[in-house]
Amino acid sequence: MEARGEAAAVGFWKREVVEGCVDVADLVSPSKLADFVINPYVGCPHACRYCYARFTTRYRPERPELWGDFVDVKRCSKPLGAKRLTGKTVFMSSVTDAYNPAERKYRATRRILEELAPIDCFLSVTTKSNLILRDLDLLKARAERGLASVSISLNTLDDAFRSEMDAASSVEERLETLRVLAEAGVPTVLFMSPIFPFVTDFRALVEAARPFVGEVWFENLKLRRGFKEDILAYVRARFPKFYAEYLKIYRRGDVGYWSALKEEIADYCERTGVPNRIFFHY
Ligand code: SF4
Question: Which of 97, 154, 223 gets mutated to test ligand 1 (max ligand atoms within 8 A of its CB)?
C-alpha cells in the first residue's frame, strides 16, 4: 500500500489487479506448517495490509506491481503425487489465498482438490473468502473420510475496520461460510489472525463464531518491514487513543501486552470450554 498522507493512512483502495500465469516445476513444497504446503497462485488480490507473504514479490522481479495488485496462476505439469502425500498433512495456502477472486476464473484450487480427492492425506485449508463454498462437495467428501478441515481467518466483527484492512469477504460472509461448512459436516476453525492490540475483541469474536467452529486459533499481529510503517500510520489516524500503546509494543518491543493477553485467552477458553491453539510470537 503506498503511503499518501493521513487520509490515505486509513483508506484502503483497490487498483486493478493484473493477472498472469507462471510455470512451476512442482505445486507441492515441504513446509514447517504441515508436511506439505500447496500455493496455487503467486500473489494475492485480497491485499491484506498486514500480509507477511508480500516478501514473495522478491522472487518475481518481473512483477513491478505492489502486493495485492497482481496474481499469477501457477501452471504445472507434474502430478501432485499420491505416493508422497499419502498419510501426510497438506496445508493450503501459506503465501496466497487459494480462494482469491482469480480462482473464480482459473479454478486452479478446484483442480487441486479434484486431484487430491482419491489421496488419503489430511488437507487443511485456510481462507478469507466465501468462494470456498463453491467446493463444498469436494470438502464434504474429504471430511466424511476425516481428511479435511477449513479455517476462516477473521480478526474483527467491525466490517469497516475489516474493509480498511483487506479486500476479501465481509465479516458476515465469513461467519456464514463457517456456518455452512459446519452444517455440512466439515470441521471448522476460527483463525483469529492477526489480533490487533486493543482493536480485536477476542471474546466477541469467539462468541459470534462459536456455534459454527470446533476450535479457535489465535495469532498476534507482527509488524514486519514493508508494512510496519503503514499499519502504524493507520493506527495513528484511525485509533489515535491506542497509538502510544502500539509504539510501546512495536517500537520499544514491550511484550507485556501479549503475555497478558495470552493468559487472558487461555483462561477464557478454559472457563468456557473452547478448544484452542495460541500462536503468539513476540
Ligand atoms: S489473504 Fe492471506 S495471502 Fe492473501 S493478502 Fe491476505 S494475508 Fe496475504
Answer: 97
103 lines ligand 1 (CB under 6 A): no
For the CA of 95, the closest atom of ligand 1 is: 3
Q: Which amino acid is at 200?
A: T
Q: Which amino acid is at 120?
A: D
Q: How many CB atoms lie within 10 A of CB 58?
A: 7
Structural domain spans, the chain: 21-279
- pLDDT means over runs of 10, the chain (282 residues): 54 79 96 97 96 86 86 97 98 98 98 98 98 98 98 98 96 98 98 98 98 98 94 97 98 96 98 97 88
| Residue 20 near residue 72 (C-beta atoms within 8 A) | yes
Question: What atom in ligand 1 is closest to the CA of residue 129?
Answer: 1
What is this structure's pTM? 0.94
151 lines ligand 1 (CB under 6 A): no
Cα–Cα distance for residue pair 272/83, rounded to 1 Å: 42
Closest C-alpha residue for ligand 1 atom 7: 51
Task: Measure the CA–CA gap between 214 and 57, rounded to whole angstroms.
Answer: 35
What is the grid cell recorded at 186? 466439515
Residue 51: CB within 6 Å of ligand 1?
yes
For domain 21-279, give its CATH number from 3.30.420, 3.20.20, 3.30.310, 2.40.160: 3.20.20
